[in-house]
Amino acid sequence: MYATYLRLDIFVWDSDRTVIRAARRKLARSAQRDPARRDARKRFYREMLRHHADAQRLVAHCRL
To answer: Which residues, 6+ apart, have CB-to-CB distance to 62 below 8 Å?
Structure first.
């Protein structure tokens, strides 16, 4: 899933809302609204946010 995060074309300093919007654009149309896939969507969004938070921590750690 980290490769998917990298393909979102976002910057490290972008907000969580921007990450969610970019991730939603990566989902297929049928998966965006299907009630049966709601839990899978939530897991996907949470994982993208986790990767984004990790990237922000890494940048904050490496900045001088």
So the answer is: none
Query: DSSP assignment of 30-62, as one string?
Result: HHHH-GGGHHHHHHHHHHHHHHHHHHHHHHHHH
Q: Is 63 helix (H, G, I), strand (E, B) or coil?
A: coil
What's the number of domains the chain is made of?
1
| Global model pTM greater than 0.85 | yes
19-44 per-position pLDDT tens digit: 999 999 999 998 899 999 999 999 99
| End-to-end Cα, the chain, rounded Å | 29
| Signed CA dihedral, 10, 16, 22, 27: sign only | positive
What residues make up the domain containing 27? 2-62
